[in-house]
Structures are given as structure tokens and as C-alpha cells.
């Protein structure tokens, strides 16, 4: 039986037993609580230590940012009341708005923001460019952040408002002074919801309470900007790895919002009574298989190129999403298709070689049978499917594959290991990135060549860093096609990852839940019960 048919049947059958048996419980639920099914379990609380999407979503509930982004992706003030820039464009002063308070009752001060910026820019690819251009960063008084640059940096607000992994969240100074490569184990921010640490069950359940001292901005909410109004007194996150169980709970009214519905259940949930589906982000997602560049076998550039040439993106997309052309597309590029000035540069480098031709390319690369440990998080159905396709492909072209399926939290912890596979390391893992976090070379940590300072996998390519600096100096209204093509030429010649295709993700809510913002991920503000 096809997996889609099996899951749909299980969900339909469950509604008559599991769902009906608990319908009375659903009716007695407290309307002041929002029950949310997260795509995977929350295990790490620190959004600077990890680029994990679930940690990012958690962080947006708890923390706030100096700047947010609007629906058109332009920066907007958030914790900042306003800023001034000197005539030579080198000195920026930001004023914090009134009424900012941390969840422990302490006021948010400029020195908290300064320490948070310093910790952020040690980990984030865009932040590192800000750090390199900075002459000094200080807090001359409790409300003022002063940043003096070595040279003009016209994309500064884009950096401070960056969305996606490793956002510049503001923490209390005592937390922000923690080494950027050491986890902060508490979650105290100044955002619209407080994290309830006593109710946290890592990987399974987390809970948040409305922070009554939070003062929203007056503007309408959009993406990460504007008035973040907390309509619910409480939000509880649940993890349900079994999709049929989650579908049952949604149909029975026991849960209010399901972050991500697998493609297998689109048709079923789209027809279910009392249920509404909507795109999670109209800018879509980009599938990735990331190489470990420090260890064999993928410290061998020729082997990476051979595997890249063997990839057939249709196989990945169909395995994860079926044949629905409205959900996915192929994209032979190292930056997302649809981004202005990005071309599908990789047709020659990704010819989807036959198995025999790919075997020959692998043999000619100098591959010597080293074990390749391939990781995939099975609690993200699409990423699990990607991993299965990759492992099968690698075996068929003559590689020694050790496929290790696991949950997302375990995988994220594992990918921090820089040792060999004999010492618990890894060779490749599967993930995805939102297009919003990849629209320019400074934001796009997946292609940056920062080596040991960069994203896990530790791709080292100074030529890419030079082009990222060139982009920073390019006027914002100028065409980037030439620069992007030069960058892609380098990336396909020495690939940091395998691009697997682009796809849309759908979120599911009960029809009495309104206000989920376009592109909001799982952000709880503006969401209300009608």
C-alpha cells in the first residue's frame, strides 16, 4: 500500500474511534489556550547556538529583535524607536523604545542589546560581516546603542533584521556574555510570551504564558515586524511524530494549529470539516544535503562533484511530495530559483548521470571505500524521504553508506561534532532553508565559505567570501546577475551541498483560529480565536 493511502486511511479510521472518544474533552478545552503541534520537538533553547528552525520559532515567541522584516522583506524598527546616521554613514545611533522589560522584571538596557549583538555576530554569517566592518560598539547610556563603522555598510539594517537561522535576538546581558559556542540553558527574553521552564519536556512538550508587561508596537503585524499582540493567555506546544495521530487530534478539535501537514495528508485535511489549510510561507523552501568538508569522504572535491552530477531532483521531490506540480519544482541552482537575478546555473553540473556513468565518476574521483555516515531526521517527513533517496543513490553508485535515521534534535546535536565518523562524526545530513533566509550572499549561510567559523559542514572558500564583500558594496538597485553567476560558477565547481529542489509547506488550523500571518512560520502573535 502506498504511504499516502495508508496514512489517510489511518487518519479517517481514527476519527471514528480515537477522535470521537475524546470529542467531549475537546469541547471542554479552555478557549484562552492555544494548542499547537510543532513539526519536531524542541530540544535546544538557545537560538544563537543552533540554526534549528524549531529553536528559531521558540525564540520568536520569547525574545524580541531590534528590527523586524515586513511582508516585502524590508527592515522595520521593532525594539528600536528610531535611529540616526552620521553624514559619513559610519556612525549609527539607535534608541530603544520605552517600556521594554525582560520576563524576569529587569528593564531592557542598551548594554543588553550590545552584548547580544556581539554574541550573535560570532555565529551568524551576515553578523560576521558586520563585525568585520565595525570599529566600535557601545552603550553610552541605558537607551542608546552606538555603532561606529570602519566604512559605510548600507545593508546594516538588513543584517539586524535578518530572518531565518541565527537571528539577532536580544537577551539579558548575563546570558549574552555566554560563549557563542556554549548553549544558554535558560530562555528569558522580552517578547510577547514567557517560556515556562518548569513545564518543559525536551523533545515532547513546551509551554508559554502571555507576558502582560509586553508593550506591542502600534503598527499592524506582518512577518516579524509591527504589533506583536498576544491574544492567548497560554500556548502549549506538543510533538506528535505520527502524522495520523496529529490529523486525528486536529479533526477532533483537541488541537488548534498543526505547524506542518505532510504532503500525504493534504487531500484529507483539505476536505476535513472544521479545518483550513494555508501556505506556511509563500516564498517556499529549498531542500539541502549538506557535506562535511573536514572529514573523508567528502573532503574530496571530485567525489562531491560526482555525487552532484548523479542527483536527480525529481526523485527527491516525488519521494517527499508525490506528483503534485503545485507543491514542488526542480531548481538547479545554489541559490533559490525565483530570487531576483538568480539563474539556473547548474544544468551542466547536474545532468542526472546514469548509474553506470556515476559509478565511473566516483571511481575516477579517488574514492577509496571510506564509510559515509548519512543522517536524516525522520520526524520531518520530507527530510527523511530526502535521506532515504540519497542513501539509495550512494549505494547504487558504489559508495560505502551508513544511513542513520534519527529525530531532529539528535541530528542537530550530532552535526556539531567535527570528528571522524569513527569518533561519532558524520559525512552528510539533510535539511532545508527558507528562501527568505537565502536571498542574498550575506544572509545565505548555506553557501558561505567561512570554514571553521561558518555553518556546520565548515565549507572553506575564500573566493565566496570575497564576492560576499563585493555584494555589500554594490548599490541596492543594481543588477546582481553577474555577481551571482560568478558565485555559482565557484559553488558548482567546488560544491558545499547538494541542491535537492524547492517546495511549498502547508500549515493546518481549526477554522475558529484566525490571524496566522503569511510567512510567519509558527509565530504566535496576532493569532486569535474567533
Q: What can you tell me about this protein's structure?
A:
- The structure is a single chain.
- With 530 residues, the protein is an alpha+beta fold.
- The chain has three domains: 3-30 and 240-281 and 506-529, no CATH class; 63-193, Dipeptide-binding Protein, Domain 1 (Dipeptide-binding Protein, domain 1, Alpha-Beta Complex), CATH 3.90.76.10; 285-503, Dipeptide-binding Protein, Domain 3 (Dipeptide-binding Protein, domain 3, Roll), CATH 3.10.105.
- 30% of the residues lie in helices and 21% in strands.
- The strands form six sheets. It has a seven-stranded mixed sheet, with helices on both faces.
- The radius of gyration is 23 Å and the shape is globular.
- The relative contact order is 0.16.
Amino acid at each position: 500500500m502506498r504511504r499516502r493511502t495508508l496514512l489517510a486511511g489511518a487518519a479517517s479510521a481514527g476519527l471514528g474511534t480515537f477522535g470521537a472518544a475524546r470529542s467531549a474533552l475537546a469541547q471542554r478545552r479552555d478557549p484562552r489556550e492555544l494548542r499547537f503541534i510543532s513539526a519536531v520537538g524542541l530540544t535546544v533553547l538557545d537560538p544563537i547556538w543552533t540554526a534549528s528552525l524549531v529553536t528559531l520559532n521558540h525564540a520568536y515567541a520569547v525574545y524580541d529583535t531590534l528590527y523586524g522584516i515586513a511582508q516585502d522583506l524590508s527592515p522595520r524598527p521593532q525594539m528600536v524607536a528610531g535611529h540616526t546616521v552620521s553624514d559619513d554613514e559610519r556612525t549609527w545611533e539607535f534608541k530603544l523604545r520605552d517600556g521594554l522589560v525582560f520576563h524576569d522584571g529587569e528593564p531592557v538596557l542598551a548594554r543588553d542589546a550590545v552584548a547580544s549583538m556581539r554574541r550573535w555576530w560570532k555565529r551568524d554569517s551576515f553578523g560576521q560581516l558586520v563585525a568585520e566592518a565595525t570599529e566600535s560598539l557601545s552603550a553610552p547610556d541605558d537607551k542608546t546603542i552606538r555603532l561606529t563603522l570602519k566604512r559605510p555598510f548600507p545593508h546594516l539594517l538588513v543584517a539586524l533584521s535578518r530572518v531565518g537561522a541565527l537571528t539577532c535576538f536580544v537577551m539579558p546581558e548575563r546570558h549574552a556574555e555566554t560563549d557563542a559556542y556554549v548553549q544558554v540553558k535558560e530562555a528569558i527574553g522580552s517578547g510577547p510570551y514567557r517560556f515556562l521552564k518548569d513545564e518543559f519536556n525536551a523533545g515532547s512538550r513546551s509551554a508559554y504564558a502571555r507576558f502582560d508587561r509586553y508593550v506591542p508596537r502600534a503598527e499592524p503585524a506582518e512577518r516579524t515586524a509591527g504589533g506583536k499582540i498576544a491574544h492567548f493567555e497560554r500556548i502549549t506546544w506538543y510533538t506528535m511524530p505520527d502524522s495520523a495521530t496529529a490529523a486525528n487530534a486536529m479533526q477532533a478539535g483537541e488541537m488548534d494549529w498543526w505547524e506542518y501537514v505532510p504532503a500525504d495528508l493534504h487531500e484529507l485535511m483539505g476536505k476535513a470539516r472544521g479545518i483550513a489549510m494555508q501556505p506556511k510561507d509563500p516564498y517556499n523552501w529549498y531542500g539541502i544535503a549538506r557535506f562535511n568538508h573536514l572529514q573523508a569522504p567528502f573532503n574530496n572535491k571530485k567525489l562531491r562533484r560526482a555525487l552532484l552530477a548523479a542527483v536527480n531532483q525529481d526523485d527527491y521531490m516525488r519521494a517527499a511530495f508525490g506528483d503534485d506540480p503545485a507543491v514542488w519544482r526542480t531548481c538547479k541552482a545554489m541559490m533559490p530559483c525565483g530570487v531576483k537575478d538568480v539563474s539556473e546555473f547548474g544544468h551542466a553540473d547536474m545532468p542526472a548521470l546514469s548509474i553506470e556513468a556515476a559509478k565511473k565518476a566516483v571511481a575516477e574521483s579517488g574514492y577509496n571505500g571510506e564509510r559515509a555516515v548519512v543522517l536524516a531526521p525522520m520526524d520531518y517527513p520530507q527530510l527523511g524521504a530526502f535521506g532515504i533517496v540519497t542513501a539509495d543513490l550512494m549505494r547504487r553508485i558504489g559508495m560505502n553508506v551508513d544511513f542513520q535515521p534519527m529525530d531532529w534534535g539528535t541530528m542537530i546535536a550530532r552535526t556539531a561534532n567535527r570528528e571522524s565518523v569513527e569518533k561519532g562524526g558524520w559525512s552528510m545530513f539533510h535539511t532545508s532553508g527558507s528562501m527568505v533566509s537565502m536571498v542574498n550572499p550575506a544572509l545565505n549561510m548555506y553557501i558561505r565559505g567561512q570554514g571553521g567559523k561558518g555553518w556546520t559542514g565548515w565549507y572553506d572558500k575564500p573566493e565566496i567570501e570575497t564576492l560576499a564583500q563585493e555584494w555589500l558594496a554594490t548599490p541596492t538597485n543594481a543588477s546582481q546577475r553577474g555577481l551571482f553567476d560568478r558565485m555559482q560558477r565557484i559553488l558548482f565547481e567546488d560544491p558545499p551541498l547538494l541542491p535537492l529542489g524547492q517546495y511549498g509547506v502547508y500549515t493546518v488550523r481549526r477554522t475558529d483560529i484566525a490571524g496566522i500571518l503569511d510567512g510567519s512560520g509558527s509565530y504566535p502573535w496576532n493569532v486569535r480565536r474567533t
